[in-house]
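Sample entry was shown:

___
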Amino acid sequence: MAFDLITRPFWRWPAVFEDDEDWLVPATGTPGGITISEDDKNVFVSASLPGVAENDIDVTFDKGSLWIKGESRQEEENKKLKYYRKATSSFSYRVAVPGELDPNVEPDAAYKNGVMTVKFTKTPASQPKKITVRSKK
Protein backbone atom coordinates (compact mmCIF):
# COMPACT_ATOMS: atom_id res chain seq x y z
CA MET A 1 0.00 0.00 0.00
CA ALA A 2 2.74 2.49 0.91
CA PHE A 3 4.69 1.50 -2.19
CA ASP A 4 1.58 2.17 -4.26
CA LEU A 5 1.49 5.78 -3.01
CA ILE A 6 5.15 6.29 -3.89
CA THR A 7 4.83 4.92 -7.40
CA ARG A 8 1.48 6.61 -8.15
CA PRO A 9 1.73 9.30 -10.86
CA PHE A 10 1.60 12.83 -9.44
CA TRP A 11 -1.55 13.72 -11.35
CA ARG A 12 -3.39 11.03 -9.39
CA TRP A 13 -2.28 12.28 -5.97
CA PRO A 14 -4.95 13.86 -3.79
CA ALA A 15 -5.46 17.56 -4.43
CA VAL A 16 -4.24 18.73 -1.05
CA PHE A 17 -4.08 22.43 -1.85
CA GLU A 18 -7.04 22.71 -4.22
CA ASP A 19 -9.80 21.84 -1.77
CA ASP A 20 -8.97 24.08 1.14
CA GLU A 21 -6.87 27.15 0.46
CA ASP A 22 -8.37 29.12 3.34
CA TRP A 23 -5.23 28.59 5.39
CA LEU A 24 -3.39 30.86 2.93
CA VAL A 25 -5.62 33.85 3.71
CA PRO A 26 -4.23 36.11 6.44
CA ALA A 27 -6.24 36.34 9.63
CA THR A 28 -8.36 39.45 10.05
CA GLY A 29 -9.78 41.14 13.09
CA THR A 30 -8.18 42.36 16.26
CA PRO A 31 -5.38 40.37 17.91
CA GLY A 32 -6.09 38.91 21.33
CA GLY A 33 -5.34 41.29 24.17
CA ILE A 34 -6.08 44.37 22.02
CA THR A 35 -9.13 46.58 22.64
CA ILE A 36 -10.21 49.45 20.40
CA SER A 37 -12.70 51.97 21.77
CA GLU A 38 -13.70 55.56 21.12
CA ASP A 39 -15.55 58.51 22.56
CA ASP A 40 -16.67 61.74 20.87
CA LYS A 41 -13.16 63.19 20.55
CA ASN A 42 -10.70 60.28 20.75
CA VAL A 43 -9.90 56.74 19.64
CA PHE A 44 -8.20 54.47 22.19
CA VAL A 45 -6.17 51.33 21.54
CA SER A 46 -5.34 49.30 24.66
CA ALA A 47 -2.95 46.37 24.65
CA SER A 48 -2.47 43.87 27.46
CA LEU A 49 1.29 43.32 27.79
CA PRO A 50 1.85 41.55 31.12
CA GLY A 51 5.44 40.94 32.14
CA VAL A 52 6.86 43.36 29.57
CA ALA A 53 9.01 46.24 30.78
CA GLU A 54 8.11 49.71 29.50
CA ASN A 55 11.50 50.17 27.81
CA ASP A 56 11.04 46.86 25.89
CA ILE A 57 7.97 48.17 24.02
CA ASP A 58 8.26 49.82 20.60
CA VAL A 59 5.18 51.69 19.34
CA THR A 60 4.92 53.10 15.80
CA PHE A 61 2.01 54.70 13.94
CA ASP A 62 2.24 54.80 10.15
CA LYS A 63 -0.43 55.20 7.45
CA GLY A 64 -3.35 54.36 9.70
CA SER A 65 -1.69 51.31 11.29
CA LEU A 66 -0.48 51.06 14.86
CA TRP A 67 2.46 48.69 15.34
CA ILE A 68 3.18 47.39 18.83
CA LYS A 69 6.35 45.34 19.13
CA GLY A 70 8.21 44.12 22.13
CA GLU A 71 10.10 41.48 23.98
CA SER A 72 9.75 40.00 27.42
CA ARG A 73 12.62 38.47 29.33
CA GLN A 74 12.58 36.37 32.47
CA GLU A 75 15.55 35.03 34.40
CA GLU A 76 15.54 32.92 37.53
CA GLU A 77 18.46 31.48 39.41
CA ASN A 78 18.55 29.41 42.57
CA LYS A 79 22.10 28.40 43.47
CA LYS A 80 20.90 26.31 46.36
CA LEU A 81 18.91 24.03 44.03
CA LYS A 82 21.36 24.46 41.14
CA TYR A 83 18.59 25.87 39.04
CA TYR A 84 18.77 28.48 36.29
CA ARG A 85 15.99 29.44 33.92
CA LYS A 86 16.02 32.03 31.16
CA ALA A 87 13.05 32.66 28.87
CA THR A 88 12.47 35.27 26.20
CA SER A 89 9.53 35.89 23.93
CA SER A 90 8.74 38.53 21.37
CA PHE A 91 5.51 39.82 19.89
CA SER A 92 4.34 42.10 17.11
CA TYR A 93 0.80 43.43 16.68
CA ARG A 94 -0.53 45.51 13.79
CA VAL A 95 -3.86 47.22 14.32
CA ALA A 96 -5.73 49.40 11.82
CA VAL A 97 -6.92 52.44 13.76
CA PRO A 98 -10.45 53.43 12.65
CA GLY A 99 -11.78 56.92 12.08
CA GLU A 100 -10.42 60.21 10.82
CA LEU A 101 -7.49 61.10 13.07
CA ASP A 102 -6.05 64.58 13.50
CA PRO A 103 -2.56 64.55 11.91
CA ASN A 104 -1.59 67.70 13.86
CA VAL A 105 -2.00 66.04 17.27
CA GLU A 106 0.64 63.55 18.37
CA PRO A 107 -0.77 60.23 19.70
CA ASP A 108 -0.27 59.75 23.44
CA ALA A 109 0.90 56.39 24.84
CA ALA A 110 0.75 55.46 28.53
CA TYR A 111 1.77 52.20 30.24
CA LYS A 112 0.46 51.14 33.64
CA ASN A 113 0.10 47.74 35.36
CA GLY A 114 0.83 45.75 32.19
CA VAL A 115 -1.66 47.65 30.01
CA MET A 116 -0.56 50.14 27.38
CA THR A 117 -3.11 52.63 26.06
CA VAL A 118 -2.55 54.80 23.00
CA LYS A 119 -4.89 57.78 22.57
CA PHE A 120 -5.53 59.29 19.14
CA THR A 121 -7.42 62.57 18.65
CA LYS A 122 -10.14 62.66 16.00
CA THR A 123 -10.33 65.48 13.47
CA PRO A 124 -12.83 68.21 14.39
CA ALA A 125 -14.82 67.39 11.24
CA SER A 126 -15.33 63.77 12.36
CA GLN A 127 -16.48 64.68 15.86
CA PRO A 128 -20.24 64.57 16.52
CA LYS A 129 -22.16 67.81 16.21
CA LYS A 130 -24.99 68.75 18.55
CA ILE A 131 -28.21 69.55 16.69
CA THR A 132 -30.88 71.52 18.47
CA VAL A 133 -34.48 70.61 17.83
CA ARG A 134 -36.94 73.48 17.44
CA SER A 135 -40.68 73.22 17.35
CA LYS A 136 -42.35 74.23 14.12
CA LYS A 137 -45.02 76.91 14.38
